Amino acid sequence: MSGSVVRVASAADLLEVPAVEAAADELFRARGVLDLPPAASARERARAWRVLVVGRPVAGFAVLERVDGHVHLEQLSVHPSAMRRGTGAVLLAATVEHARAAGARRVTLLTYADVPWNAPWYARHGWRETDDLGPQLRALAEHEVELGLARHGRRVAMARPV
């Protein structure tokens, strides 16, 4: 998939995104995380600043928002059948390019510190843990605590310069 074309999601693509998210979330079930929030609907995803997808049918997606003047990677999911083929890396590269084109200085995200396909994976792609949280990113991190995501492991903010 490393040569796959990333595109801004169409309305038809958005209908496929929830199934990809649900399939990817099954990986957390194997780690004992049984109470993740349900996958966002196509309608909810359509409200995002950008949703990038790769594959036909959609094999992976990235949901991007504008947070504190930066681009924030709100969600990145790859269907298990497309994992370990460069799909996530292609989506990350496209995320950085969209951020650059939008004039952002960095891309931020919130993730689990110790899940191998979370913070360690992002670190291999140029993201670093940060305490430099603007008010909107801090509010997102606090909302994750309210949702109970921190009970499954330490959550961290990460950033990558554009």
Secondary structure tally, helices: 5
Q: What class do helices, strands and sheet pairing give?
A: alpha+beta
Oligomer: single chain
State the name of the first-level CATH class: Alpha Beta
The average pLDDT is 91
The N- to C-terminal Cα distance equals 23 Å
The biggest beta sheet reads:
7 strands, mixed
Low-confidence stretches: none
| Rough outline | globular
Percent helix range: 25-40%
Order of helices and strands: EHHEEEHEHEHE
CATH superfamily: Gcn5-related N-acetyltransferase (GNAT)
Looking at CATH, which topology would you report? Aminopeptidase
Name the beta content range: 25-35%
- Count of β-strands: 7
Task: Describe the structure in your own words.
- The protein is α+β, with helices and mostly antiparallel strands.
- It has 5 helices and 7 strands, in the order E-H-H-E-E-E-H-E-H-E-H-E.
- It has a single domain (6-161), classed as Aminopeptidase (3-Layer(aba) Sandwich).
- Helices cover 36% and strands 25% of the residues.
- The relative contact order is 0.16.
